[in-house]
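Minutes, structural biology subgroup

Action item carried over from last meeting: produce the structure token record for ABC transporter ATP-binding protein (Thalassospira mesophila). EB confirmed the sequence was re-checked against the source entry. Recorded below for completeness.
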Amino acid sequence: MAKLQLKELRKSYGTVDVIKGVDLTIEDGEFCVFVGPSGCGKSTLLRMIAGLEDITGGTFEINGSRMNDIAPAKRGVALVFQSYALYPHLSVYENIAFGLKVRKTSASEIKTRVGDAVTMLQLEKLTERYPRELSGGQRQRVAIGRAIVGQPQTFLFDEPLSNLDAELRVHMRTQISELHQRLERTMIYVTHDQVEAMTLADKIVLLRDGRIEQVGSPHDLYERPQNLFAAQFMGAPKMNIFTLTGAFETLQESLKLDRNAHYCGIRPGSFEIAQDEKGIFSARVKLKEYLGNSCLIHADVEGHDPIILEQPVNTDIAKDSLIFLNANPRHVHLFASDGNRIQ
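Output recorded by EB:
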């Protein structure tokens, strides 16, 4: 059982504030992902939970007990690093067993725990190999195995897949998700990749500049972004944002939008290409990208930044052709002049 609570948590390096009053509850057994751009504070926040960074202010609790000054080894957490942090002179088996030996766990218990972890992570044929003889994905599984044998209540992952190629990342995402289902432990995962966040998380915590921008399920953040930052960070390609002034003031009338809206957002897949010239605005096609099941159309719009549309793969549109676009008002996101969502 591990319920984590962060109350007005702050971290400063001298006069530089890095974490700026974070309030967050992570329920027992939840898979929580910290996501955000580089430098937003997500890894620092994870290291504060692990006990590797001092807490400047606020309170961190596990199951109601204050953890601010508790040593990392006594917090019931295990951290899996991006760099794997394996000992090069130790075999796979020895790397996984190392922490247990340091704690003077009995030989029989070590054998049982390591054996269970090796089986769970499908490392049976690799136990005598050394890290230099392993692929990136295999090394990451060994690092996860080392965390598992400690039987922590909470697993912490700091961008564990960043060093892997695209195919391995997909495979390891699946393995980590299956591991969570099997162990039923609280897991906190840091990534800058919003696709990883969307596919793994029960709860996403979107961070920017040391503050939480939005907390919710993947569906919440994608379908109901609470501000312009969340709207454009979650989703690939990112949401197209229009300022409802000047050339685009007519969008309010055409789509019957709330008069308090200053911005509207339309995701690439929410555009409809009109069969006549009666769209809400026109765009000139500059590039068509083939993605297999769909295609991305990059287009220039007069008085606006270029936009991206996602359309069926058989959409017959030539470069430099003029297209007219519509959008269902139900799929248009509205934001006030301060960037916050209009409900």
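Discussion: The longest strand covers residues 16-26.
Next step: EB to file the record with the rest of the batch.
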